[in-house]
Structures are given as C-alpha cells and as structure tokens.
Amino acid sequence: MTKLFSLLLATGLLFSGCEVSHTETEATVLPTHATPLDNDIAETNISVPEEIQEPVWGARSIKRVADRTRDAVVEVHNPYRGVRGTGTYFEFKGYHIVITAAHVLTGADVMEIMTPSGESTRGLVVLADSRAPNDLAVLVVREQLMTRVPMKLKLREQIHDAIGEDVVYTGDPGHHRQLTIFGNVSGVHDGGSVIMHSYAWPGASGSSVFDSKGRLVGILKAVDVNRSRMSPFPQITEDMVWLSPGWLLNLEDLEKILTIYELMLELERGEQK
C-alpha cells in the first residue's frame, strides 16, 4: 500500500496543502432540562389543521436523504494519531470511495474504515486537500463494504442558491454512533467556506452534508470560535458549523486519480506474480 501511495504521489495527482485557517475546537453540549408535557397534551382537545398533518414535499425529501446517509456513514480511524472522524461511503465511476475531512487523516496514508455493525477494511488515501477553504480527502476501498449502501456522488454546484435550504448529515460524534443532524445553509464565508446553522461535535469531522436532492453541499470541518472584547476567552459558537465546499471537488481529476490507482494496482499485482 505504501508503495502504491508513493507512486500516486509521484504523479502529482495526490494533493495536499497547508492547514485550514480556522481550528476545529471542542464544543460544549448544553444540558437539557425539558419538562414532560404528555399529560397536559393528552387532556387538551387540539385539532391539527389538515395541511400540516403531513410533512411538505421538501421535508419528505430530506428525510429520505437522511435515511440514505445513515446507510452510508462509516468511521475513519487514523492509526498514526489514534484519532477518528466520520466518512461517507460513495460509488463513483465503478469505484467505492470514502470522503472525509483532510485533517482527520493527517500523518497517515492508509486508514481503517469501520461500519456501525463492526465490518472493517482499509482505505488508501488518494486525494487530500487542505488548502483553505478546502479540508477534504478521498480514500479508495478495494473491497466493497457488505453492510453499507454507497451513495451516488453528486455535487451541489450553485451554493448561493442554497442559502436557507434544509441540509442533513449523519456522523459519529463523541461516544455516539449514527447521529443524524438537520440544519440549513446560512451563508458563504468570504474565504469560500460554507456556513451551516446546525450542530457539530468532535468525531463528526468529515461528515458529508447533503441537500434534499442528495447532492453533496460540503464536508464538515469545524465549529465557529469567536473572541470578544468583553472576555479574553474564546467563545464557541457551536451552532455555526463550517463546511469545506463540496463543489470544489474536481470530479474529472478524481476520475483520473482513480484510473491511475487502478493502473498502479495492476502493476503491483504483476510484480507479485
């Protein structure tokens, strides 16, 4: 695997860059103090208007996409640093790949991919781009994951038109597995990053965020950290989530990289005979 990685690197098609300009920071999860209202609701006679008894078309669409993200989510373990992030399993041009954040795999060229059911395999890093605003990576998986259903790789090209639209991702933050989180696109940062109004925690880095048509909006990379003149301490804005823009993933280049990967694999097999 290391030899194959070196050959890809020599072709100049495996990209890498500087660290992202904003650091991913641990977010504090606020406790909830909800009071059960079941008894009060049961005793009231409230009629629900017919037009809001069923979700609107867009809500049904985002729910279907959410279900698909749950079938495609994987954990990405970095053996070099002993950390993990989230990835999404895709099918692209006949290849099975996992997309995650570049900072998850810093220092490693082979990652361990694990599914919620315990199935595991290895993924070879074929693309890693951390040149701001990017923070995304692609791993190719030799063997198809039997307990996952790959998503089709489609990109959301016009992100400014998506402002206000619902989006969804499934990730593995903290000790949780397969948490499906909804949100909406809030804007685009001057540097090009997509800002999502939602929530994210350590471990969710690398999660793919989708719109209601199953198109990749971006890769989750960080939460917002602000500094106030009123306090010397950084303030985490945990509901302001930064995404590496999905449309910057060049699919033509990715196809070339995977073609070269296949050629290198054939050469490696030939040398072993």
Features:
six-stranded antiparallel β-barrel; 4 helices; Thrombin, subunit H; alpha+beta; 273 residues
SS-based structural class?
A: alpha+beta
Under CATH, the topology is which? Thrombin, subunit H
Strand residue content: 25-35%
Rg on CA atoms, Å: 20 Å
- Summed over residues and divided by their number, the pLDDT gives a mean of 79
Oligomer: single chain
In CATH, what is the class? Mainly Beta
Helix-residue proportion: 10-25%
**Count of DSSP helices?**
4
Shape: globular
Total strands: 13
What is the straight-line distance between the termini? 17 Å
Taking pLDDT < 50 over at least 5 consecutive residues as the criterion, the unreliable ranges are 7-57
How does CATH name the architecture? Answer: Beta Barrel
Strand/helix succession: HHHEEEEEEEEEEEEEH
Please describe the biggest sheet, giving its number of strands, its sense, and whether it closes into a barrel. Answer: 6 strands, antiparallel, barrel
Order of strands in the sheet with most strands: 1-2-3-6-5-4
**Whole-number tally of structural domains:** 1
Can you tell me about this structure?
- By secondary structure, this protein is of the alpha+beta class.
- It has one domain: Thrombin, subunit H (Beta Barrel), CATH 2.40.10.120.
- The chain has four helices and 13 strands.
- The strands form two sheets. Strands 1-2-3-6-5-4 form a six-stranded antiparallel barrel. Strands 8-9-10-13-12-11 form a six-stranded antiparallel sheet.
- Strand 4 (110-114) and strand 5 form a beta hairpin.
- It is globular.
